[in-house]
Amino acid sequence: MTAAQAQKEIIALTEKINYHNTLYYQQNRTEISDYEFDQLLEKLIQLEKEYPQFKQQDSPTQRVGGTITKEFETVYHKYPMLSLSNTYSEEELADFDKRVAKGLEGEPYEYFCELKFDGVSISLTYENGVLARGVTRGDGVRGDNVTNNVKTIRNVPLRITGKNIPPAFEVRGEIFLPKNVFNQLNKEREDIGEERYANARNTAAGTVKMQDSTEVAKRKLDCYVYSLLGDTGSSSHAQSIQMLESWNFNVSQTYKKCKNINEVFEYIRHWETKRLELPLETDGVVIKVNSLEQQERLGFTAKSPRFAIAYKYKAQSISTRLNGVTYQVGRTGAVTPVAELQPVFLAGTTVKRASLHNANEIERLQLHIGDYVFVEKGGEIIPKVTGVDHEKRKSNTTQPITYIDKCPECGTKLIRYEGEAAHYCPNITGCAPQIKGRIEHFIQRKAMDIDSLGERTIDQLYKLDLVKSPADLYDLKREDILKLEGFKDKSVTNLLGGIEQSKNTPFESVLFAIGIRYVGRTVAEKLARYFRNIDKLANASYEELVQAPEVGEKIAQSVFEFFRNPENQREIQRLRKAGLKFESDLKEPEKESDILANKSFVISGVFERYEREDLQDLILKNGGRILSGVSGKLDYLLAGDNMGPSKREKAEKLGVTIISEADFEKMLKGQ
Ligand SMILES: NC(=O)c1ccc[n+]([C@@H]2O[C@H](COP(=O)([O-])OP(=O)(O)OC[C@H]3O[C@@H](n4cnc5c(N)ncnc54)[C@H](O)[C@@H]3O)[C@@H](O)[C@H]2O)c1
Ligand SMILES: [Zn+2]
């Protein structure tokens, strides 16, 4: 390589890596795998070493990849939050060990191994035993103050008690979404017709930076801590971990002190597949020199400590034959292609099927039936196809995949909505999985909660032509149910009782149950509270809908369309006749005054004396209106603690008056 070529390459790599960093840290998205990313970075590191004169000002090798945002207050870290140098090979790990030995000039040392938890790092500052601040890593020097969001994480102690607690100290840890929580979240999203989230790490990162902490609380984030900083009297990392445990911090019980690098290798091999059984995603092992005094002597580079390194596991991949593609139709009519594979053993289990997501993905991979494909088990439960083993393709035995154009269940021609990757079967009322899916959605715990009905019973009711829509459930007779396999007098009574009982379900649950696209449980509650009964909601114009608290354009459009569909209108009529609740039990806030008439509000942040919902009620009771976002039409932005600076900026720019909780109280009193 000539110098000129090297320069060109360095510039190109810098640009490329910075691009992927921005995607990863700002938008929580990825276009390439971590492995590919790390390879690019490694190449740049090597080139910069050889040609330091071409190193760019904004070189990603010199700094931590993240940034701060404008949505939160910026906080400077007391101790910088650095990255970790990483490797995928045991040889390089052995080199690391040699560097450590050399740096410590032959004196004995030990390692401490932990798993590398794949989430977002957080710095927790405790003052007098009380959690004072939770700050993201940001650019390593400064981060976002996300304390209110951190406080919703149950495993993060808000106050610690015990002996010898230092007056101030900092704890570092990783916030993550446990696998089961992540899967549940995706199930709920699929249920209401939202796209699945791609991976748990990105979702956790997005959640930590949400503006509304009540929403964060619902996401059930978790946190493991792995580092203690400050004047704690500890002399080794192991001792720090012990202290953290004694103060009831959540420490993963997967660590191990290792006497030498060979024990480290053993640890790495031990966890290679075992880690897949853990409740969260991990992507490697972090190896730290145990003695804090030795850590200090080894010191830091601009970007990472010299006393620690991350050994990353390559995602486990295997090649197997693609026997065919089948297609699944979901409740919302969305079609998902599934790869049917020659069964193969991979990382602890036999893999027979893998998700192919959608037609674009099949095209991107250029898949043929009969191909040998690489299957990978990443963090997700469902394995994925990552590519074709082109060397094994024989043109006479493989054939290109033609994506289906008709529904595999009912034969209706599939459609594609603009901007969406999935194909849909539009036959809402005549397509079996859609019908059964709607009933399953209807009876679930968070909806009508009819637990005497299950998937199998629904299937039978459907096949016997007894139930084709939720309203049919309320017409079921004893003699109908007796036709079902395994149903005797007692179980029939049970089932009928459960259906009868469901008539007491409150309006917000009914609203969720009827299955309006994008209306999840939380949105249903908001709508029920704001519109109070189904008629007001059904007759609301699009403009009125977007004005409802926290209803955006997508939801407003979907609700509007739902109620204009004659089929849906008929179904609601029938459910209403059956005696379901279509009116909120919550007392309508009694009109108190007109003091806020013609005034519009947006509520943002956290308040000292009121919950947000109380404030909403107060505004409505006194004749005011609530808008969903800051715009030129808005009169007042009611701002609590931790409102993002960007909202404030926008309001200021548009000339919206910003008021505090106290100002608002004065306003109510007419002062
Ligand atoms: N695919 C992409 O486009 C893309 C883009 C940017 C970054 N990335 C990935 O992110 C990595 C770079 O991210 P990084 O700089 O945050 O480094 P890193 O995530 O590889 O390592 C540092 C982080 O590890 C975490 N960690 C987890 N368990 C730990 C433990 N037990 N002890 C100490 N720390 C622990 C901490 O949060 C720490 O901040 C890259 O290696 C790459 O894999 C991927
Ligand atoms: Zn269909």
TrEMBL record:
Reaction catalysed by this enzyme: NAD(+) + (deoxyribonucleotide)n-3'-hydroxyl + 5'-phospho-(deoxyribonucleotide)m = (deoxyribonucleotide)n+m + AMP + beta-nicotinamide D-nucleotide
Pfam families: BRCT, DNA_ligase_aden, DNA_ligase_ZBD, HHH_2, Nlig-Ia, OB_DNA_ligase
Matching InterPro entries: BRCT_dom, BRCT_dom_sf, DisA/LigA_HHH, DNA_ligase, DNA_ligase_AS, DNA_ligase_CS, DNAligase_adenylation, DNAligase_N
UniProt enzyme class: ligase
Binding annotation for NAD(+): D34, Y35, E36, F37, D38, S83, L84, E114, R137, E174, K288, K312
CC per GO annotation: cytosol
Top-level taxonomic group: Bacteria
Alphabetized UniProt keyword annotations: DNA damage, DNA repair, DNA replication, Ligase, Magnesium, Manganese, Metal-binding, NAD, Zinc
UniProt-listed PANTHER family: CHROMOSOME TRANSMISSION FIDELITY FACTOR 18, DNA LIGASE
Name under which the protein is recorded: DNA ligase
Organism: Chryseosolibacter histidini
Primary gene name: ligA
